Amino acid sequence: MLINEPLIFEIGSEGRSAYSLPDTDVPETDIKDILPEGMLREDISGFPEVSEADVVRHFTRLSRLNYNVDHGFYPLGSCTMKYNPRINEDVARLPGFSMIHPYQPPEISQGILKLMYELELYLAEISGMDRISLQPAAGAQGELAGMLMIRAYHTLRDDPRKKVILPDSSHGTNPASVSLCGYRAIEIKSDKRGLIDPKKLRQIMDEDVAALMLTNPNTLGLFEKDILEITGIVHDKGGIVYCDGANLNALLGIARLGDMGIDVLHFNLHKTFSTPHGGGGPGAGPIGIKDVLSDFLPVPVIKKEGDSYQLNYNVLHSIGKVKAFYGNIGVLIKAYAYIRTMGADGLRRVSEVAVINANYIRNRLQDFYDIPYNSHCMHECVLSDKIQGKHGITALDIAKSLIDYGFHPPTIYFPLIVKGAMMIEPTETETKETLDRFIEAMIDIAMRAEDDPESLRHAPSTTKVGRLDEVRAARKPNLRWRV
Amino acid sequence: MDFPEDLLYTKEHEWVRIDNGKAVVGITEYAQQELGDVVFVELPSVGTEVAYMDPFGVIESVKTVADLYSPLTCEVLEVNHELETQPELVNSSPYDKGWIIEIAISNMEEVGHLLSHDDYMAHIEDTED
Known about the structure:
The complex is a heterodimer.
Chain A: H1 31-34, H2 52-65, H3 86-92, H4 95-98, H5 110-127, E1 131-133, H6 139-156, E2 163-167, H7 173-180, E3 184-188, H8 198-204, E4 209-215, H9 227-236, E5 240-244, E6 264-266, H10 269-272, E7 287-289, E8 301-305, E9 308-312, H11 329-365, E10 381-384, H12 386-389, H13 395-404, E11 411-412, E12 421-424, H14 432-451, H15 454-457, H16 470-475
Parallel strand pairs in A: 2-3, 2-4, 4-5, 5-6
Antiparallel strand pairs in A: 1-7, 6-7, 8-9, 10-12, 11-12
Helix pairs in contact in A: 3-11, 5-11, 6-7, 11-14
Chain B: E1 8-9, E2 14-19, E3 22-27, H1 29-35, E4 38-42, E5 49-50, E6 55-61, E7 65-69, E8 74-79, H2 82-85, H3 89-92, E9 101-105, H4 117-128
Antiparallel strand pairs in B: 1-2, 2-3, 3-9, 4-6, 5-8, 6-7, 8-9
């Protein structure tokens, strides 16, 4: 593990190859005879030429340096890094799903269309929304699709609006989606409770505001208690309410965003519905809407006629397609398998345990860490480095030190409204023993911050490389291998 | 921390040095410390018109990204191109080499909204609590 792994470009030698293909039984043609000269690529120089064993070993060694949800506890706040049950993978690999092609006509694709139709129904029931589109490939794309629908809605009513209101605790993708749709992002500051203040909202909400974009529970892990008043204020002025579904893991089977006056939301199937994240992805960010926006849905929508399922491209004012074909189908299948294996009671239990786990951590750490908005939280809690800061120890030092205890660090320096924030989301899939080991590690770090702060400043020390120079990496990025 | 007495300030931690209808704008010592090592400053184009307290640019550190707010309604006359290759000047010299933009003030009455040195010090104390 401690060997210095070279880049793939640095191993191998000219003419070496991983596998020799048998001679082709089709006559070979020189590429120059089929393509014009201008279309031909010059030879690639410096391309790695390695044996099969070298390739396999290189990538296996790299994979062992990686940390993932199959490896250990991964309390990355706002990301819901829950364990992904293996059965979902089995289901997605059933040949009836894995061997189909998106160009297959609907009459011979009834199985997958039925699954997608039913997944839409489940998501609608879970969220209290009227209609679902499974197309968006990620949360941020769901946001964009939702915002485009909001814009189309106002434009059609001959009431184009210019602004969208967002709380200062929002995810960075929210103002980005708003700007991408040509709106001006207006920030509303959170109040002393860490919530949206309806009085303040009333002051800035006017008939030039297209939408309010919020997250509930918000990024402090707190439930917006005034949500009904908030959505009422926006609706009174003809605005739409968008909810970022990143924190849906707190609400399953307990409360429905659709019942709180939300008009559009996105789901992160790769968070709440246990499909793999990141390198194990891709993700999926379906959107849910109320009927008022149904004329703007992306096409195609899935329609049931008698016992058969059809793709319907006939949506009056559709914003069009947002993704090639029909979305990330493999992810949708895994989410469907998850919902069916958990059942309604199981999903409610997911959120109950996720909330209990977060409150357990918050409670046990509150004597050791500053917790700026310390009240009952939902599925995640936000600490700060204020106490450790007195000894010159920052959230970054604490996060890096956790690696030496065998844990993935929490999200740090987010939400932006908490100075030195550490955002911890345990999810429901962790046992009390795991949480206790994590808590003990956090307490030990707090003690060391007081007694021996120097020992935290260079962490981690058990990894292949120690503390990276993030400043230099950002100021002088070196992004390309030069041959 | 150093906060020159001859400057005016905003609640969003910009400083303003006014001189004959024009002004130079940057971020304060407190702001640069809070951000940590600055790695990128997105500057406006010269000639851009910005309204009072609207964002005119973005500043990025390893920890976070923040909007830069225009202390006054203005037209951008000059930007500090040095920051394109040396964003760290904002950390090492926030009031001098780390200046961000120079502006032509559109409405001198708005100057009354800016914080004096003492008001800004009090504002930081409030923020810290």
